[in-house]
Amino acid sequence: MDLNTAREPELLVPAGNMEKLETAVLYGADAVYLGGNALNLRTGAGFDDSNLEKAFTYARNHGVKAYYLLNAYPREPQLRHVETQLDMLQKLHALGRGPDGVIAADPGVIRRLRKRLPELPLHVSTQANTMNSEAALFWRDQGARRVNLAREMRSEELKELLAVCRRLDPPLEVEIFIHGAQCMALSGRCYMSAYLNDRPGNSGQCSHPCRYDYRVTGLRVEEETRKGRPMWELEERDDGVGEQFTQFFAAEDLCLLHYLDWMRRMGVCALKIEGRNKSSAYLAQVTDAYASALRHLREGQSRFHPETYLAELVNTASRPLSRGFFDESEHAALAQPPAAEYARPVLARIEADLGNGRWRVEVKHRWDVLGFAVEMLVPGLERPGLAVEEFGLENEQGEALSVVHPGQKALLHCDRPELRKGMFFRKAWTFDL
């Protein structure tokens, strides 16, 4: 297939609140997905009914699609929440102010959605664990326009499934997660959180016990036919006070950056980033990296430089990045999180343009004005440095600040033309002050 005729996939980005929605739009998302106050799998990252309309309108006004999440698996007492959510969506849809589609996984939720709002596009969540073409066709029979496939699928399996979906009339859209946290359980079907903390993951209440620190009593396992080769081994780390712990259950994070061209050629409709509970600083860097990578691919293969985008993605990582199940020939970690001395924390976000080169910023990380170099996160993967003499920070009383702490607001004086509302500042690797 000629690269110039490849279908251009949609970059689909999480929006856990209004700040994250604005960040996703600014840094290049084609679409966002967001949840409400019930029945989405991130209970701490939902919009309430009073600002949902605002979120949908903001996305639409910026040419970005917005998909609404009803992807939890409700138990019997929670069915009333399904009707409440559908009431709200029906009202917004009638006014022309609703989402561009709804993401769901539970057959009961899908059944009610198709009865109440048959004209609203249905996207089947990855939680439905779709792993073959017959399952995809089943969801199409239920009215689905798009299916987000299970993250456990390999590239050859995806290739076959995509070929089937392309031949349909109209084609069934296929969506794939390309970046973010992976679950130790099959498509998130984990009961550890429910067992330990009475917080069911499939109801959006996961407390992530797979990320907890566990004390090691010693374990190294060999499989019988692979003698002399460790199959699983707990790796300990010192907590600083003499105790040894491990995060044995924690899955590596997914990163399919190197397969973007393959996905374009195979006709993948949407490339999805995980992370509605991640910070807006994380979202800015990851969205900018993938949006730039896709733009460069559109401009020609020679413009695509994986190491440039990977440097941005690694800077956001707290766990090793891997290809997950996608490439069965390669299980080694793609990249490791940076050591503390090489980390480039995001320092602040511009909240408002006050005019005349004055900006109100919210500080995200300790900002020592004279302690380290700073760079601006300009959309389009531009990272110009900001010299000390080019800016100043003040408090609300107009007093100069040399250090600003997380959570504080400050007044930034800077007339660099690149600046705009919603942009971030980051600690630089090297820059001559």
How would you summarize what this structure contains?
By secondary structure, the protein is α/β, with parallel strands linked by helices. 26% of the residues lie in helices and 22% in strands.
SSE blueprint and pairings:
Layout: E1 10-14, H1 18-26, E2 31-35, H2 49-61, E3 65-70, H3 79-94, E4 101-104, H4 107-116, E5 122-124, H5 133-141, E6 144-148, H6 155-167, E7 173-180, H7 192-197, E8 214-215, E9 220-222, E10 230-233, E11 237-238, E12 244-246, E13 253-255, H8 260-266, E14 270-273, H9 280-299, H10 306-315, E15 321-322, E16 346-355, E17 358-363, E18 367-368, E19 374-377, E20 385-386, E21 392-394, E22 403-404, E23 409-413, E24 424-427
Parallel strand pairs: 1-2, 1-14, 2-3, 3-4, 4-5, 5-6, 6-7, 7-14, 13-15
Antiparallel strand pairs: 7-13, 8-12, 9-10, 11-12, 16-17, 16-24, 17-23, 18-22, 19-20, 19-24, 21-23
Helix pairs in contact: 1-9, 3-4, 9-10
In words, what does this structure look like?
By secondary structure, the protein is of the alpha/beta class. The protein folds into 3 domains: 3-184 and 251-322, TIM Barrel, CATH 3.20.20; 191-246, no CATH class; 344-427, Beta Barrel (Elongation Factor Tu (Ef-tu), domain 3), CATH 2.40.30.10. The chain is 26% helix and 22% strand. It contains 10 helices and 24 strands. Strands 1-2-3-4-5-6-7-14 form an 8-stranded parallel barrel, surrounded by 6 helices. Strands 20-19-24-16-17-23-21 form a 7-stranded antiparallel sheet, with helices on one face. A hairpin with a 7-residue loop joins strand 19 and strand 20. Helix 1 packs parallel to helix 9 (280-299). It is globular. The model is unreliable at 1-5 (pLDDT under 50).
